[in-house]
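Box S1 | Example of a co-folding query
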Amino acid sequence: MHDNDCLFCKIINGDIPSAKVYEDEYVFAFRDINPQAPVHILVVPKEHISCADEINETNSANVAKCFEAIAKIAKAEGLDKGYRVINNCGEYGGQTVMHLHFHIIGGTKLSEKVI
Ligand code: AMP
Ligand code: ZN
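Box S1 (continued) | Returned holo structure for adenosine monophosphate
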């Protein structure tokens, strides 16, 4: 189940190249093309869910799988001192690609705290 016009669905399908760091049955992860820190990885469910607002009891297992992957990727990337996971949702949240994704930001001590 994917959206033909969605950039991240195209990346998951391999129609657009990416620097893949992790893949399993439910999750795909790749390096952000415009990194904001030494480590900046996007973790996406393979199922097209447009944003956090669209998570429901039918599809939420994909989100759990994303966070299982985040823990594995953080270990593989050596982020043992910590990192930040960010989700931007919708226009006011600054979301630019409408396929649910979690940013893993790390590799340095992060300073700019939003909350
Ligand atoms: P957001 O603003 O939360 O929707 O995040 C979208 C992210 O996707 C941004 O950080 C972009 O740099 C990143 N991005 C856009 N196009 C690509 C691409 N082709 N490959 C990797 N990352 C991308
Ligand atoms: Zn998509």
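Strands lie at 20-23, 27-31, 39-45, 83-86, 102-106. The pocket of adenosine monophosphate (ligand 1) is lined by residues 7, 16, 18, 30, 32-34, 42, 88, 94-97 (CB under 6 Å).
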